[in-house]
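WARN retry 2 of 3 for item q-0093 after timeout on previous attempt; input resubmitted unchanged.
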Amino acid sequence: MSTERSDGRQASAPEPELLRVSFNAEREAARALLPERVKGDALRRSLYFTTLGWFFGAFWFAAAAGGATLNRFVEYFAPLGQKDFFIGLVTAAASIGVLLQIPGALRIEHIGIRKPFFLRWLTTQRVIYLVIAILPWVLPAHSAWAALLLTALIIGAWGCQHFGGQAWVNWMGDLVPARVRGKYFGRRSRIGIVVMAVTSVLMGVVLDLSGTVKFNEIVGPWAEKAGMPPLLLVISIIFFFAAIAGILDIQCFHKVDEPRMKAVIAEPMFKRLVRPLRDRDFRGYVLYLFTWMSANGFAAPFWWVYLLSFFDLLKSQGSTAWWLNWYYVAAYIMLPIAYHVGQFAGYPVWGRMVDRFGRKPIIFISSMTHTLTWVFWLFLTPDMLFYCIPAQFIGGFFGSGQEIANFNMMLGFNRKGGAAYQAVASVITNVGMAGTMFFGGVLATAFLKIESSYGNVFTLSGLPFGRYQALIIIALMLKIFADVILLTRVHDPEAKPTAHAARFLIENLYGNLDSVIFTPLRRVPDMTTDAVRLTMDVTTDAARKVGEVTTDTVSKIGDVAEDAVEGVRKIFRS
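OK item q-0093 returned
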């Protein structure tokens, strides 16, 4: 394009580089209006709405982002015999969107303002779940192309999450003061845990009621008109309201202030992405996290399927256990609720410990103990089912420590080198997890064909050894390798000796148990003696008072009697 000059010649358009500089200058002017730091009442208000948003977000996450509801959704659309494959594929789809984290990180560094970017893309993600909610109304069951469309929508939704979520991580790193970061996010997470636990119970009750005759009499006609099973109609409605709650979560951030983002040195994209990989500390941590996430990928999609399949097996064998009539509620209690209660108990402990001992020792202690709880699932029998609850509680307690420590580790890298660190780490680790989720689905499908043809040809301690146990063993081996070998190479300048952290944890746990359980028990004899002494004192006082009242009463009666006798005498004398 050209313009007319005063001398009549055509002037050429400005160079693209000059346009880019002008665009950045406008962004810099907008960025300059933001406060250097958010503090005082503005900080308190911002932290309040950040927590309030997670109240709605936790409901969305528990109701629609995974678990039994999403698995039943996938089973409805998956072709017959391909359930495990598509569960692995759809679960992996959520991680495939992580590839957009790098463009998202580069974009927020370019524009320099995170809040509107975050609001736009995360709202889009939750709106996509409204679209997912109506899929059973318009698509046929057990259709490969319908299952692939669901997978594509999941990829799109989580792509928006990862593209816009980089702004949130970077934003929170600047908003929340470092001295209270562990404590604040621990408290925020506890609120989410309560919401997710209550939501899980409600989901279990609704799913179990969907199998009753009364429920089918009420919902059946509506489901028939919609052309889907009653259970899918209920799940579709759950997804719809969960999406609305998810949108409210993001809208709460309109009330959260954004501090000024640190300027990033302009450099070519390739150089910016390679720079984190030249950081030796970052490479060591990402290698550990990649292996750990890959291990989780083998087992994560199949916990629900494994437990519900076990319940179905018990029902087919004629088991009369009362909880099989409420087996969704039982599954929710054994899996997410017990885990969330453990997290609720653990967050305040780990938040303080991360602030005091650093990230690396907390990651080692929590991850190793969390790994041990997986061994229990290899020996799942009817007699062992009750122990699912304490096993998951312990897993949640220690899993919360790893969650807080990893989050704080990544915030540290973010502050060190910008959003590119977070983006590169997330892409590498989530690609590994997505790969093992997909591969786990392929292995589970292959193992199913073997089981269908030959039955359970392997045993473990005399118990049938199936496809899900095989995936758990693979995951266990990778997790132990990551914790014992790779974590030792991770450098954390703030880390204190692991033994000190472990000793503090043991003393802290013992102190809590002592104050809640042991101290009251030790006081029982003293309390009994005090109760006996108090009873004797009360009895003595009561007896003394009764005696005094009795004496006064008798004296008054005597006086009245004497007066009556004297009155009678006077009458006779007269």
